[in-house]
Amino acid sequence: MDGYRLAAPILFALDPEKAHSVGLRLMRFASKTRTEPSPVETSLGELANPLAIAAGYDKTGAHLRSLSRLGFGYLVAGTFTASPWSGNPRPRVARDRSEKTLVNALGFPNPGIDAFVLSLASQGQIGVPVVASVSGKTEAEVVACYSKVQPHVAGVELNLSSPNTPGLKDLREPAAFAELAQAVKAAKVKPTYLKIPPYVDEAQFGGVASLVRRWEDLGFEGVTASNSLPIEDPRMAVGRGGLSGPPLLERTKAAVSRIRRASSLSFEVNACGGVSSPADASSLLAIGATTVQLFTALVYQGPSLVRQILADPDFRLSSRTR
Ligand SMILES: Cc1cc2nc3c(=O)[nH]c(=O)nc-3n(C[C@H](O)[C@H](O)[C@H](O)COP(=O)(O)O)c2cc1C
Prior knowledge:
Layout: H1 3-13, H2 16-26, E1 40-42, E2 45-47, E3 51-53, H3 64-69, E4 74-80, E5 93-96, E6 101-104, H4 113-122, E7 130-134, H5 139-149, E8 155-159, H6 167-171, H7 174-187, E9 192-196, H8 202-217, E10 222-225, E11 229-232, E12 240-244, H9 249-262, E13 268-272, H10 278-286, E14 291-294, H11 296-301, H12 304-311, H13 313-320
Parallel strand pairs: 3-4, 3-14, 4-7, 7-8, 8-9, 9-10, 10-13, 13-14
Antiparallel strand pairs: 1-2, 5-6, 6-12, 11-12
Helix pairs in contact: 1-2, 5-7, 8-9, 10-12, 10-13
The chain binds flavin mononucleotide.
Flavin mononucleotide binds near residues 59, 93, 195 and 244.
């Protein structure tokens, strides 16, 4: 029996936020994943495999070495902001164990970008590329955070899609986005991905697709599709949050295939949302995703899920034939 199965009943008896921080600390005892690489060439360099932990799992970036031992091809840390944020009032995370979903309204609690840079330096070699997720309430905050972190990481994911930080929606308005994207481009020295909101319907995604087109036209490397789905939820102190887990998979497929159809082959699409099995991960690679990120399924299934995906023949084949 793996360690996660022993720990799971205790973790699920705890409040979800507490359980997450205990789980992260226990992760350093997880056994190292030893799977043959299924290499993939991306703008981050050659990855050992196209599977990654999504933003928000390691919000402080203090657990990257433990996460790299699980076998991921790269890691997304954060989301970080220019100065420390405490996030929204609690309760701000809830589980639905029967659906294997989470709802979160965290609102970016994080130690700030300076603390992350120091923490990263103190961890030594992580062993796999690290991507920093950054955000902010204004263009100036976003660009300050972006500029500070670039020298220390392999790439950056610009998060303008969290449903829990009201100002972000304003930064996605076409004029504000055009200005922000220009400012980010002027400061860019590392591969940079835009994390977009999930597919809701054709009208809504049409608006998202025009942001993606502008992003690609400016020469950015790719996008991460997608963030959690905004929903009303009375369990959250703020009354709403972002849904994650299996119900997002079909939306992720819709987003990936639409972006893939509309963009050049070299534009990278990191698929994220609802991946909870090897078949889910390989189906996203098969429709044109460059890499696959996951979060919620790791909470419910533990590190053995990563091993199963990396050992899966279809996943390995889809990765090689990309
Ligand atoms: C508790 C929690 C916190 C999250 N925090 C962030 C975050 O800080 N930044 C971000 O871009 N996405 C964040 N996300 C969204 C995930 O990165 C991912 O886009 C989403 O959960 C869908 O993937 P999944 O179904 O595999 O969980 C968070 C998700 C959860 C469940």
